[in-house]
Amino acid sequence: MARDFATFAALHVPGDPVVLYNIWDTGSALAVAAAGAKALATGSHPVGDAAGFGDGQKVPLDFVFGNARRILAAVDLPLTVDFEGAYSTDPGEAAANVAALKETGAVGCNFEDQVVGGEGVHPIDTQVTRIDAIRAAVGSEFFINARTDLMIKAEKQDDALIDAVIERGKAYADAGASGFFVPRIADPKHIERVVREVPLPLNAIAFPGAPDKNVWAEAGVARISHGPFPHRALMAKLTEMASAAIQ
Length: 247
What we know:
The chain is α/β, with parallel strands linked by helices. The chain has 11 helices and 8 strands. Helix 2 (26-34) packs parallel to helix 4 (61-74) and helix 5 runs parallel beside helix 6.
């Protein structure tokens, strides 16, 4: 499959979501590709855990870039990288970091609005400025999957929260985002509303207890990620197998 930007963007079809079973290294990339994946996506949490750094922009940038290059050298599929907060609150520095990521051959990245290492989320105007700077640095085709962490940070999921999510989605679209990632959105009614009001393909994350992907597809989801859960499940299975061998 071609690894160009247009090919990757075209996979985001509301109602027929591309499934990104998150990977962390070359070995996991080869395994997921062998399963028939149409594209690959790293997760910052599994990359950090597998390499011993942890999550929250603790993985050195050189390692992030090297990891992307190694994966792309081994697998002929489009790759998007979970780039957290682009490793800087400064718009120019964040943009330069994403431009460097693009040079690895990655076709896109996740870019989140939570304050990495701090509390809450960045104000909308701050995040819009950052997205705008990134778009200017990487050109029109690189897939910026703008993530809002409002639903992760919220104590309850109600209409007011969805209003706030939609407000951010619209603002991020205007700033040049390619997709809208809303971790922990699950209710099909909430999804339908976001899909209807935000002019970007919606990315939801599968998690234990989440609705079936067909339910989300019917609601209009265009992309389903799996985040840290594949790595966690595999490590649990490895511990089980090791325990059986050792005992």
